[in-house]
Amino acid sequence: MSFAMKQYARIGTQASIQDASPHRLIQMLFRGALDRMASAKGAMENGDIARKGELIGKAISIVGGLRDAVIEDGGTLSQNLDALYDYIANRLVIANLQNDEDVLEECMDLLTPIATAWDEISPDRVQSSSEA
Asked: Cβ distance 63 to 78 under 8 Å?
């Protein structure tokens, strides 16, 4: 991809982020983490260790962003999500260090149902409950 195309793509992504609702931003984090994990798995399969490390590092950062987004209300759900995101981040480190596709797949399997459930939440419902 040419430099100009990369710049255009980055500007488009930044505009999407600026215009996105909080609900949409979380969706973007889930998709970004899962996409990086899938790409890291491909890099592992191709023996591209540097690219794998870069992608897993980005996935860990994104999972950290998801963890930061958890509302700290002391409730069971928020505690469980925080613990799960911490577990996933730690497992990603292991996947990277051990070049282990199974561990990477485990992380994707843990995150996918949450991402799917988040996608099924109506943004209108989220907006109306936050205004109450």
From this structure: no
